[in-house]
Fold this protein.
Amino acid sequence: MVETGHFALVLAFALSLVQMLVPLVGARTGNQRLMAVGGPVTVTGFALTALSFAALASAYASSDFSVASVWENSHSLQPMIYKITGTWGNHEGSMLLWVLILTFFGALVAVFGNNLPASLKANVLAVQGMIGAAFFLFILATSNPFIRLNPAPIEGRDLNPILQDLGLAIHPPMLYLGYVGFSICFSFSVAALIEGRIDASWARWVRPWTLVAWMFLTGGIAMGSYWAYYELGWGGFWFWDPVENASFMPWLAGTALLHSAIVMEKRSALKIWTLLLAILTFSLSLLGTFLVRSGVLTSVHAFATDPARGVFILCILTLFIGGSLALFALRASQLTAGGLFHPISREGALVLNNLFLTTATATVLVGTLYPLALEALTGGKISVGAPFFDLTFGPLMLPLLAIVPFGPLLAWKRGDVIAASQRLMAAFALAITAMLVTGLFIDGASVFAALGVGLAVWLIAGALTDLAVKSGFGSVAPPVMLRRLAGLPRSVFGTALAHLGLGLTLLGIVATLCFGTEKILTMRPGETVELSGHTLRFEGLTPQKGPNFTEDRGRFLLISDGNADGAITSAKRFYPVRQMVTTESGIRTLGLSQLYLSLGDENSDGSVVVRLWWKPLVTLIWGGGLVMMAGAAMSLLDRRLRVGAPAKRRKPAAALASPT
Amino acid sequence: MTRKQKRLSVILAGLAFLGAAAGLTFYALGQKASYFYMPAELATASVQPGQRIRLGGLVASGTVMRGNGATVAFSVTDTQKSVKVTYTGILPDLFREGQGVITEGAFGPDGVFVADSVLAKHDERYMPKEVADGLKAKGVWVESKSQ
């Protein structure tokens, strides 16, 4: 089975070479038969990659320690779920997952792209083939997951304990669906540059792909953030760690792309810019893959450091980013410019959005790469953390968030900012009220906290105002209004939901940062502690035994109004195989807020160090992410993307609306 | 406005914007980035009390003192010099005597380094990369330590 998987992987690499060459030549020479080769080859390549991945997963599931990758990252006593998720909990397996998703998306274009112009489809598949070939070669040359060990070890070395978690089962696949989803936008852009023209069907294809990729990337980042929050036991949800930034940069650029693609689709303006953004977004995804996979950063993601891998990915990175940008420089002037618009218009607002988002992306990029560059050039070691990003990223985000509610209320081509402001009066009043209430009535609220709460309420109310205005709230009878609301395009709901989610996330962040409380203390069994109105009694430590670990479980009783209100447990776990200790945090969700505690070391006198946090509205941070995802899904269901707008050509993209 | 003027104005606005962001970025890099030092380097570097830095090295054996409450004192050493560090909070799971650690914080007026975060992030060898590099550069990297 393992050899079958290995062979399938080599075969998939060979097919990707065919996929990158034959359709390209076909499109160049106008040969229909050569172009038609692309589809079947792509689908077969996907099937082979899937077979290869299945082979690796089954080796993990059956604990076949004769496979080096399994031996290094698995153990026979691990629960089955973590044996399986361990498949992508290591460098080799996660790269295989990467190409699996890449070929999956390629196959979707091959199967559902019958309505695309033949040459465009051929070029898109060829570019996908190039990316695939580069990464297949990378896997086979430097990170082969199917290397055998002889003699086979009897027992494995266990998966890194902090990766033995359900969050890991979901976070990487989601993140990769996002990262790699942008490869389709990239391929479409490069194909358009090769052809030297962009037509209407181009925009209608790129937008749903951007939505899909963005939706998964949002989910992946939110999931990763929540995982770090509960698994690392530090109670933080975002650390501005380079590895987090690696996923955040494509998200910011992807958000800009999402917005500029609207302008392009609706008004056929900003074509060249959208194309460039698509290239940049995927370039940032590749950069993220490089940062995380090359081992230049020390983190939980750098499973093993091997300079050959870093150099190889760096070559891939240079080739694709350099190549596509060079092509852009050569060909962009041939593309026709789009329609005109007044600065104050929906287009204008979206341009402003792009300006803010791309600049913010640039600051994150500088903050992430500067320490690496400095170390490479001078050997000096610095760390760029939250204080840097608070000062650069923060000031860029505040004005952007403040103008978000205006965007959807401005008309295309020429908007009326006064009319939009009048419609936003109620939302504005609400935001000011929230700001005043926060500032005046909550103890210890800073100016920043009041401003943050006001801004969040402004976003939330603004999103609802958009729906209210478009359904005629207040100006027509309620039944008519409801009918109009139901008749609104889904993309309007999508926009409102996404902006609402942003407001919720912001509210969660502001509330947690400004009104959260924490305590560090030593406790003996029977002692109680009070934090923000919640009383906890430490019941004591009890040793427990898990399948592949032992733990000291600390039990705390939550007391509300004098009555016991359930227990919270936090544990220190010891994994003997890796000789590693981890902390399992104890979390109790109360409404939208959470009580979070983590256990420290036991002192010689029997007392235990305990750190506890009260995190008000903290769940909104990730809940807002879910709402944003729902907004993207809603937009994907829009009629426009399912059946297409009237145009010369027969409609593509029909099936794309629900690619999963 | 003609198309050209319009494009020009958009580009100019964009550049002004980027310029402002770039200025802010450089200012922030100068002010908010914290430098990494090993104890012996502190003699030559002029680190003011209150200036945020990252201090890395090995946790000197036999120096970890748990005082009252959650405050811990220990020394960070690069085998040539050592620096006293205090930290209030929960030490990371990988914190052990004789192993690599990075602390972030500032010197107090009394010359004791007050850390507000302690990292024992590690590779397979329980050694933060910066610390391993620093020890290698000093020639005190003992290969057996890393096995």
Notes: DSSP finds 20 helices and ten strands in chain A. The longest strand of chain A covers residues 563-575. Confidence is low (pLDDT under 50) at residues 643-660 of chain A. Residues 517-615 of chain A form one domain.
